[in-house]
Design a protein that fits this description.
Elements (H helix, E strand, L loop, with lengths): L3 E3 L2 E6 L5 E7 L5 E7 L9 E3 L6 E5 L4 E5 L5 E5 L11 E3 L2 E7 L3 E7 L5 E2 L6 E5 L10 E3 L2 E5 L5 E6 L5 E7 L11 E3 L2 E5 L4 E6 L6 E6 L9 E3 L2 E5 L4 E4 L3
Parallel strand pairs: 8-12
Antiparallel strand pairs: 1-2, 2-3, 3-4, 5-6, 6-7, 7-8, 9-10, 10-11, 11-13, 14-15, 15-16, 16-17, 18-19, 19-20, 20-21, 22-23, 23-24
């Protein structure tokens, strides 16, 4: 689980095999601003900070519940059940809706309207849609424009889904060049980047029927997702950090 930064507040999720908590720290000093006790075991999903009319919220996806907390004071605003154990994929959000998925002992992908929500949302109208097959496990989903891109489990089967409805937009596609995948899909400038642990990156165009436009290979192993800085791509391998850009 990676930390999340919003202004001068740093959010750290500490779900483990003990007394789990969500922490808000002063990013400048490390001083604790608040902590929220959590009834969760180990989880891997990173917190996501989203905007709402009532102020920013911290959304954390985990086995017991997906929960939304007030960034200001750690108050629990809403929660929703329905995911599997051992949640790894991190949430994504847009337009007052958060998208969460898991794939361990069961498959689950939920679209939850958090804007204006309070209390237990399980099986309520706030759950806009849900899917029960080909859901993500290790790689997080990518939300690009109105499209969700996500792998089935951590294998090279890519799903392309309409975010507002949960309907299949294209595919699913088997990306033959990719096998084991821990890195999440990323996007920039109308292209989707898919990187496998074996060091292969497949680039797709962001179209109604995505098609490959390039396949690149680096002699390294990759679990981290591509990061973008201006016109450069940054990839962290097991042995080296790579910066790819035009001269």
């Amino acid at each position: 689980s990676s930390p999340a930064l919003h202004g001068d507040t740093l959010i750290v999720n500490w779900d483990h095999e003990g007394d789990s908590s969500l922490f808000a720290l002063d990013a400048r000093t490390g001083a604790e601003r608040w902590r929220a006790a959590r009834e969760e075991h180990t989880s891997w999903s990173s917190p996501l900070i989203v905007g709402s009319e009532g102020g920013p919220q911290v959304v954390v996806s985990a086995t017991g519940r997906v929960r939304g907390y007030a960034l200001a004071d750690g108050r629990l605003i809403w929660e929703c059940g329905g995911l599997s154990q051992n949640v790894v994929a991190s949430p994504v959000a847009a337009d007052g809706v958060v998208y969460v998925g898991s794939s361990y002992e069961k498959r689950a992908f939920l679209a939850i309207r958090y804007e204006g929500a309070e209390g237990d949302l399980t099986d309520s109208d706030a759950v806009l849609w849900q899917l029960r097959k080909r859901t993500p496990y290790v790689p997080s989903p990518l939300l690009y424009d109105d499209t969700l891109y996500y792998f089935a489990h951590y294998q090279g089967v890519l799903n392309v889904t309409e975010a507002t409805t949960g309907e299949t937009k294209a595919g699913p596609f088997r990306v033959d060049a990719l096998r084991d995948i821990y890195a999440s899909p990323t996007a920039a400038n109308g292209h989707i980047y898919l990187t496998s642990r074996e060091g292969i990156t497949v680039v797709l165009n962001h179209a109604d029927e995505p098609a490959p436009v390039a396949v690149n290979r680096l002699d390294d192993r990759f679990s981290a997702s591509i990061a973008f800085a201006g016109d450069a791509l940054l990839l962290r391998g097991e042995r080296h950090l790579y910066c790819i850009a035009e001269d």
